[in-house]
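input
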Amino acid sequence: MKRLSIILILMCLFQTSQLFSQDKPAYVIYTSNGKKTTFEKLVESTENKELVLFGEFHDNPISHWLQMELTKEMYEEVGPHLQLGFEMFEQDQQELLSQYLLGNLTAKQFKDTMRLWPNYETDYAPLIDFAKKNKLFCVASNVQRKYASLLFKKGRKALDTLSLTIKSQMAPIDFIVDTTLSQYKEVYTMGGHMGVNMGMNMLESQAFKDATMAQFIMSNPGRKDGTVHLHFNGAFHSDFHQGILWYVQQKQANIRVLTISTVTQEDVRKLDKEHLGRADFIICVPESMTRTH
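output
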């Protein structure tokens, strides 16, 4: 009888494991070397970090959900030392963002005056509202898109004509670029198909955004001793520890940093080789996942 009970238990366990193996996971988190891990381990790895770069797919709901969950967890750990940074907000609108967080603008005034992305309500408003509720400083870290576009179309010299006020809202126009970085090589190749000099212009336009975001991550009115900055950006801007992070490390080589990336695959049960080393933690989402916009 005892033996029969054991057999029945084992059969139930086997059937349960088979059932779970047939489930469709919404995501799997991997370490840099492709080992499966957990969100809990990711959160633990943010401890004692000065900077966390969260690379998202802008229309991926899993990215945005985990951004919110990570923000809550990090706030529990560091409280008011937490600072949020956004590629999605441009530096000329820092004051409007700050005034909204202080309660000096209504939600309608904020939406009417800010250049908000089409998925703001679903994907970024929850983060901003959390920051507002908990009195966290938020950084509008990006350069205005029209000036990155100006560089792309006319080259770096076109930036010389800008006012000092506008120049204060971007990286110095003599910013350096490491053209040997693999991410920038990829951008150069894409731009090279568009005509003479367009490869380098596209590379520099991308680097201009990265350099600007790095500058305002490291230097902003809310930054103090002990600040922990959680920055949200498109994954390409920080993948393979390049882009934003490269520029941050030019300012502070020994900064304690953690990087997160998002990728999509047809089968998420094993991380594809091309994604190994992409970040310290890699969120792998099914290609069939619904999009937020």
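quick obs: The two ends are 58 Å apart (CA to CA).
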